[in-house]
Amino acid sequence: MKIQELTATMERIAPRALALEFDNPGLLIEPDHTEISRVLVALDCTKAVAEEAVEWGADLVLTHHPLFFHPVKHMTFSDPATVAACILLRHGIGLYAAHTNLDAAHGGVNDTLCSLFGIREAIPFDEGVGRVGTLKEPETLLSFANRAKSVLGARVAVAGDAERIVQRVAVMGGSGGDSVVLAAAQGADVLLTGEVKHSDAIDAQSLGMSLVVAGHYETEVVVLEPLIKRLQNDCFGVQYQLSRVDGSPFVRL
What we know:
By secondary structure, this protein is of the alpha/beta class. Helix content is 34%, strand content 25%. The protein is built from 10 helices and 11 strands. The strands form 2 sheets. A 6-stranded mixed sheet has the order 5-6-8-9-10-7, with helices on both faces. Strands 1-4-3-2-11 form a 5-stranded mixed sheet, sandwiched between helices. Helix 7 (180-185) links the parallel strand 8 and strand 9.
C-alpha cells in the first residue's frame, strides 16, 4: 500500500479538522519510500519504540501522541526530545500521529472509554473532544472506581465521597484537568480522566463533582487495538503490530 492511501484512511478515521489548535497531528516524518507493508502502533514514539520499529522492519510508526509540539532547532541522538526521530530518519521509517483528533473522533479514545464503561447516549463536550453520558444503572463512586481499576488495569485516585451514587459520567482520556468545569456544567456526577492538577481536584470538589483519575497512558491506550482493527478492515496488505515496549513511564507499586 502507498503511504498516501494509509494517511487518507487515517484522515477518514480521525480527521485533522477535529484536532485542537495547539496540536500537531498527521504525517510528521515521511518514510524514504512510498510503499509500506508494516506499521508499528504505539501511544508514544519513544527511543525504545523507534528501536523496536527498526528491529521489526517497520515502514511507519503510528502513534497517538505527536513527537513535536514546538519548533525543533536541532536533531541529536543525545536529546531525549529528538532521539526517536533521529533513529527513524536514519532508517527511513515514517511517523504518523493522531492525537486530539483521535480523542474527538467517532470510535476514538473517548468513545472507546464510553463503550468499555457502558456509558450510554454520550454527547461531546469540551470542543467535541470529551464525552458525557449515563450509566445504565447508578452505582457508588467506589464501585465505579473499582471498575476503572479492573477495566483499565490501573491504579486510581478518587476525589469525592466513596459512597456517593453516580450515574452521569464524563470521560476525558489523558489530561482532563481543563475539563473539570465543563464536565460539571454538563451535569456530570463524576469525571473519569487520566491526570489532573491539585487545583483541578479542588475545583471539582467545589463544584460538587467527583473524580476518578486512572492514569494518562491507561485511559488512552485502550484505543489502539480498536484502531488496528479498523485499519485492517480498510487497508489490505499491511501488517500492523502493537508495540511490545510502549507503556506508561510510571510503575505500579
